[in-house]
Amino acid sequence: MRNTFSRLIIISITLLCLGAVSSCKKDKEAAGTDKELYDMVLLSSGIHWYKNSSALLDKSSGSGHPQPFLRTWYNTAAATQLDSSGKIMPGAAFPEGSLVVKELYENSNSRARYAILFKDSDHPDADARGWVWGYINADGSVAEPASKKGSSCIGCHSQDGNIDYMLMNKFFL
Ligand code: HEC
Q: Phi/psi of residue 152, each to 5°?
């Protein structure tokens, strides 16, 4: 009887510990700059789609993002750098307040994550070129904090053919 009881206690403690570990592994809910970016992504009106189309695209061979489908939009400030076919103009330089959002999808019904570029040179989390980098899951948890200033993103987004870091124009002609 006593043995069964202590076994039960040990099992409960083990389960409690496993629970604690798995909840630590979960992405944290957005706060600070990440929350700012997440709110912008949810509230933004005046959306302009890349190539004027909201259809989901298969990710490109160069994509550093794990999800298989994507679509990209620009707020009104950023859309000043698109031509009439919705592509980025050669030599474009995005003005302050530009918001560029790539929505990443696991499948056609399930939006998983937002990859975000926001131009705000005075922002404490802006990189040397004035861009704030956001990587936020659809449920509002943070995939990579903006405080990292795009350290894992900039290398790839600086490759030949980028226009002010943008790559849609290179991979989706
Ligand atoms: C290994 C390369 C690579 C890395 C690393 C990468 N990206 Fe991208 N990203 C791409 C490519 C390629 C595209 C074009 C669309 C596609 O195929 O995914 C893109 C598209 C985007 C776009 C749409 C705007 C545009 O035209 O480029 C945003 C916003 C973006 N990425 C943000 C990020 C953020 C934030 C990170 C870091 C957390 C990041 N990316 C890391 C390759 C990368």
A: -90, -5
